Amino acid sequence: MWCQSCKEEYEEEDAGTCKECYEEASETEEELKREIDDLRSRLHFLRLPSPSLDASSLSHSDLLLHAIPADAPARPDTPAVPAHRVILASRSPVFRAMLENEMEESRSGIIKIYDVSYDVLRAFVHYMYTAEALLDEQMASDLLVLAEKYEVKNLKAYCEKFLTSKVSNDNAITHYAFAHRHSAKQLLETSLAAIMDNMSTLADREEYKELVEKDPRLVVEIYEAYLNRQVNTAAGKETDSSSRKG
Amino acid sequence: MWCQSCKEEYEEEDAGTCKECYEEASETEEELKREIDDLRSRLHFLRLPSPSLDASSLSHSDLLLHAIPADAPARPDTPAVPAHRVILASRSPVFRAMLENEMEESRSGIIKIYDVSYDVLRAFVHYMYTAEALLDEQMASDLLVLAEKYEVKNLKAYCEKFLTSKVSNDNAITHYAFAHRHSAKQLLETSLAAIMDNMSTLADREEYKELVEKDPRLVVEIYEAYLNRQVNTAAGKETDSSSRKG
């Protein structure tokens, strides 16, 4: 027998599908690919160039965003990030409320964004125009915090997905604490699972000791989840062995 | 043998794929579906609400578009369609040039759009914000013309695809002439093929007679294409019979 897909010969017990299902699956794949092409082209159309300060008068924005870092005062030569009211208001309910009501920010067109660096603010605004961001772990964490603050759900999910893909034994505790602080459920579950897979070395870790100092409640939750899993596993084995007996 | 996809029994000669390729294909399908979900969510994020005249001050636009119909003077009570410079300029090179240069339209914020009804203009602006349009054949034709004029390629392709899917024996000549006028290649090919499939009744059609009057060059092109196809088909048969002889 010959496989219609890889053209190799195979044994009867290695049969996958009948001819009809094979053809249907190929058609489905083609359809999905066409849909992807269509979505990509619409996405490309809807992307906007994020505005720059030195652009021509047309793209001149009606807002200026100022990054105010948490640790240091903003350097006086740090440029502002230009933006358009219509874009920020459509992406974020927080900006919408700020700009719809006659608040100081709306009148002056100047918005201060606290606890954030210029680079992160620029990446934030760029995402508002393009639905794209170049992430590393630091940038993803910083953008997630900003996305949460301004209720940009799409960006928060994007960053959380990225961080979740980066969870390892080495950073699980840090990510776990971060996920807790910012209600990132998927990241929380993944990092908690990674921690529970390495309980024997947990207490030796620096991040663990820090967490015990700073937020012992979270440490308790780790132990509770671990114990819970042990009990469930034991109950599962119990059921297994009793069903084997029966 | 049992198909892993439809679970039905089948004969050996109806085998489609081996098990390995079956599993790979299922994975590919899952991946494509995940990509579609991701693209849809980004698309949803980038859509903008198209502005309305009575919205709150925030969405207040900085442009007003006036529809000037070709056949009748615009009724004085026809409302203008509001829009934002940043959106129109990013979607259309024609609007970009108009708004970047210090033209009358840019200074006044008022743009007259000629030969178009209010409804079509509204649908046009809506597409600029959402990459979506509700089409019937008339709307698709009208929007295609406007998209061509303002070089909104994405919208032109969208309308052309819709019209191409509607080509039938009854409307092929009309679509053919329209496609010619607006350089719509895909629509041209599909409608020409539909015409050539019904050459025996061609000369009786009203649209044919009109076209002979208005643009006989196009009629000549139909006959040339038809003759060309006949010659090629004959040559094909010739090759067939000579290869059979050989």
From TrEMBL, chains A, B:
One Gene Ontology biological process: regulation of proteolysis
Pathway: Protein modification; protein ubiquitination
Any Pfam family matching the protein: BTB
Domain BTB residue range list: 61-137
InterPro entries: BTB/POZ_dom, SKP1/BTB/POZ_sf
Leader peptide range in chain numbering: none
Source taxon at top rank: Eukaryota
Entry protein name: Os07g0258700 protein
Species of the source: Oryza sativa subsp. japonica (Rice)
